[in-house]
Amino acid sequence: MSPKASAATRHDAVIEGASSEALARQVFSHELATWAKFDPLARDGHDPEGVHQLRVTSRRLRAELGVLAPVLTRHSAGDLATDLRWIGTILGRQRDLDVLDELLTRLEHEDSRFDASVFARLRRQRDTERRRVRNALSSARYRSLARELATWAVDPPLRRRARRRASDTLRPGLLTGLSALFELVDSLGPNVSDEVLHRLRITIKRSRYHAEVAAIVLGSYADTVAKDLAKAQGVLGDLHDRVVASNYLRDWRASRWPVDADANEREPVDLALIELGDEMTALRRAWHAPLARARRHSTALYIDATGPGDDHA
Questions:
Q1: Which domains, ranges and CATH numbers included, belong to the chain?
Q2: pTM, full prediction
Q3: Which of 36, 47, 206, 236 has the most CB atoms within 10 Å of its CB?
């Protein structure tokens, strides 16, 4: 597999030396196809993957608008980003509850079941968010957003500078973003709070999306950096999910039982909290390695824009 083909795993291949205009058209047409694929699933509501993928696409599109900002008209990009943030927030509330439900279900054991009220409250909340998602996807604002995305896929609002090589547009911004990310990591102390790690995950995600777009024209080094960042983001995402689950169980337990409650009633939740604690301890150590690999691989981007192929030992 050639470096260019490897780098463009999320998109069709771009011709060597492609213009920013060609890249923008490809990026937006790809995202529209993904949007059209998962929109029906999100509306149906039975498969959580529909909401998840639609939310991911909305977030990725917002990041890509930022990446391509130098070649886009500012007003049009700002309006689209605002609507993407709106629908992403609504989808995100349901997705977060879906993830929490899945994680709590996994923590249950055959001989140690949660009290039914643990899931009852959560699933009432999920039903409420499903209704909000259905209403949003049926709204005039959402229909307008979908039409706008279709227009951008065919004819994005571009500046004259979009005729220049895409690599010249993407390379400086990618390197600047990565430098800022690694400076942030270096500024963290030895005992980093989960809240700070959550914010770090968001920063990593932005750099990852930038690297994924840049990889289409910069080659396999950028692709490898994107994959390293995705692994670090995944670890911190798993940590955040478990922090949320732990807080949910602690809050539920505190509201459910007095201090002198029967220990047998408390045991399933106590066991789940111990398991979550062990997992969080491991995850707090695991994000460093993929981020260190991303830093090491990123140094090659200052020298070689294409990379040596698939060998990144």
A1: 1-14+165-313 (no CATH), 19-164 (1.40.20.10)
A2: 0.86
A3: 236
